[in-house]
Amino acid sequence: MQVDWVPVTRFEQNCSIHWCEATRRAAVVDPGGDLYRIQDFLEWEELTLEVVLVTHGHLDHAGGAAQLAAETGARIEGPHRGDENLVRNLDRQGRMFNLKVQSYTPDRWLEHGDRIAVGEQFLDVVHCPGHTRGHVSYVDLASRFACVGDTLFLHSIGAWEHADGNLADLVNSIRDRLFPLGDDIRFLPGHGETSTFGHERRMNPFVGDEALLRYRAGEAPMARVSDAALGGD
User: Residue 217's pLDDT is what?
Assistant: First the structure.
């Protein structure tokens, strides 16, 4: 499967396009807005959009999903039902930023372990709560590439200091569900540069191996996270 991405909206959110070379059928992950950029890419590569995917229900990631699906005939899948309230209130989120966005009900709420067909290829679903309750990541195991939304970033982690966030869940999602997939997996975060799980496991100051050791010594920057969440005894 091939992948590329374009930044969209004032939030510079990474919207990714994944496609099967054999069938030229595609998936778009997190079309937050600026749909003309996404549609121009699909047209340039002569791709047929099969499915619109959403990592979580914040407007910079999900705000354009309903419109893109309506304009292309693609289905919408995701995120996990834990974000149902966010997705159904996207229009309200938009009004907070003076943006017109549409709420939607997906064709399928996703569960951990689900697989999504894109032509003859597949994306695997990893439920990663923490930034939001229903946040999911999409992993192309064959190409060793993941779209992790606002869960993990280059040398950082997603925000949790809001009603739908939880730091312990976020750390657990990263260390127990993403890192075990393999150090070699390159990932695209919701904003900013790509990295690899291995690099973040070694170097991330919040969830890396060294951070875990510092936490156990009482020196880590995440004192509110329980020993259980960080794999403590």
Answer: 73
Closest by CA to 112, choosing from 152, 67, 81, is 81
Question: Residue ranges of the domains in the chain?
Answer: 2-216
| Residue with the two structure tokens 């880590």 | 220
Q: What is the mean pLDDT of residues 115-143?
A: 98
- The answer to whether domain 2-216 has CATH 3.90.550.10 is no
Q: What confidence tier does 224 reach under pLDDT thresholds 50, 70, 90?
A: very low
Cβ distance 136 to 57 under 8 Å?
A: no
Amino acid at 128: C
Q: Write down the pLDDT at residue 165.
A: 96
Nearest Cα residue to 1 out of 31, 40, 45, 38: 45
Give the whole-angstrom CA distance, residue 39 versus residue 18.
Answer: 13
CB atoms within 10 A of CB 28: 30
